[in-house]
Amino acid sequence: MESESRRRRVARKMMEHGDSMLSECTLQLRSRQFTKMWKRDADEHPAAPREHSADDSTEKLVDGACADDAGTPGAEREETGIREQEVGVKEEENERRESTCVSHGSISVMGRQRVMEDAVMVVPEAVTWGLSSYDFFAVYDGHGGSSVADLCRDRMHKLLSRETEECSPDRGGGGLVDWSKVMAACFQKMDEEVRLSGGDSQDIASVTEVDGRSSPEATVGCTAVVAVVGKEEIVVANCGDSRAVLCRGDDAVPLSRDHKPDRPDERNRIEAAGGSVINWNGSRVLGVLATSRSIGDRYLEPYVISVPEVTVNKRTEVDNFLVIASDGLWDVVSSEVACLVVKRCLEGRIRWRSERECSCNRAADGAAMLIELAIARGSKDNISVIVVDLKKSSSSSS
Q1: Distance from the first to the final alpha carbon of the chain
Q2: Measuring CA to CA, which of 252, 307, 321, 339 is 20 to 30 A from 329?
Q3: Helix 362-376 crosses helix 32-41 at what angle (to 10 degrees)?
Q4: Largest CA distance in the chain
Q5: What is the rounded average pLDDT of the residues 145-167?
Q6: Comparing 4 with 193, which gets the higher pLDDT?
Q7: What is the DSSP string of 277-330?
Q8: Please, which pLDDT band fits residue 140 given cuts at 50, 70 and 90?
Q9: What's the whole-number mean pLDDT along residues 308-331?
Q10: Whole-number pLDDT of residue 351
Q11: What value does the mean pLDDT take over residues 212-225?
């Protein structure tokens, strides 16, 4: 009884003081009792997280090599309403190239939604350039259905690989990769595939218009944040309101900017094209879509565009890790708090599971901890998180 009262006091303080209490309370998030009690106090409808048991092997993350089957999105399963995509660790050196394959973990859950519209993709060495290789990490947040997100998951990394190949001297390129142009071309072709054929997705039929009326597929879309990690640089392309954050030293460094309709430059662009931003349960393009850029969503052209914003960042010795996630996380957890939680997981100061169950993939534990935190804070969306441990990369490639 005393323990229950103490947990209630801690939960009440954290709800009142928010991020300032995180350092005292993060460790308790792994307690399923604490998480359920917190949601009950806040009168939230309970989500459907898995029940944790020391003897339940199904709760563990999949930790394995991503080698021959690295192009697949990882293990997927349905458990108590939660679909997860989990990608393990690969720490192998390529004798021909400077391998950058890093320790990473990813999880994608339905949360409080009834359908899963997020998709996650991790492809080690997806892009090769000379003697160097780049690992591919992406989160796709679908809306109106999962078909566009699923198509992006299956196709985006392949399109990016082709675009970089076009820059090689033997293909007539200049021998240097202009990442802004490459990413823009990749996203444009991805958008065209959604528009014209539906590609590999079984859910998207061919896009047609009858009597001037758009087919239902025109209302389906997704945001996309893509991170390409090389030995010397990190390239991020973002289209929408998912986000990539770099932990550099003790600082949370944003590698992307959310494309929200009320962002001044985005609002100006929308209005210049003849559209409008209407406050309807938050700022929305024409009162409909809560993001100003996405792939798909033909019915909102030209106001919603698929052009990504691209950043290229040189890696430093104090770069710790990347957090790439959908807005199901960022709507309730700040970049600074996310970096704090993951950093403590990687340092072994907090654990998502008991020490006996620990898989030694602390990046996966960090992703799981962020999922727990987002659910406990009342996230109502699908939540997808990738954590990329850059320190592992530095040590393995040296």
Answers
A1: 53
A2: 307
A3: 20
A4: 73
A5: 93
A6: 193
A7: EEESSSEEETTTBS-SB-EE-GGGTTTSB-PPEEEEEE--TTEEEEEEE-HHHH
A8: very high
A9: 97
A10: 74
A11: 73
Tokens of 224: 């996309």
| DSSP secondary structure of 322-379 | EEEE-HHHHTTS-HHHHHHHHHHHHTTSS-SS-TTT--S-HHHHHHHHHHHHHHHTT-
Number of other residues whose CB lies within 10 A of the CB of residue 94? 15
Amino acid type, 68: D
Cα angle 49, 53, 55 (rounded to 5 degrees) comes to: 140
pTM above 0.90, yes or no: no
Q: Kindly state the tokens that stand for 56.
A: 């339940």
Sign of CA dihedral 351, 354, 360, 364: negative
Q: Provide the token pair at 358.
A: 């620990």
CA distances from 288 to 8, 161, 319, 329 (A): 39, 34, 39, 21
Q: Which residues, listed in sequence order, are joined to residue 291 by a DSSP beta bridge?
A: none
CB 289 within 8 A of CB 209: no
Which DSSP state fits 86? E
Lowest mean pLDDT among 77-91, 286-300, 331-345: 77-91
Nearest of 328, 310, 326, 311 to residue 188 by alpha carbon: 310
Residue among 260, 333, 278, 271 nearest 302 (CA): 271
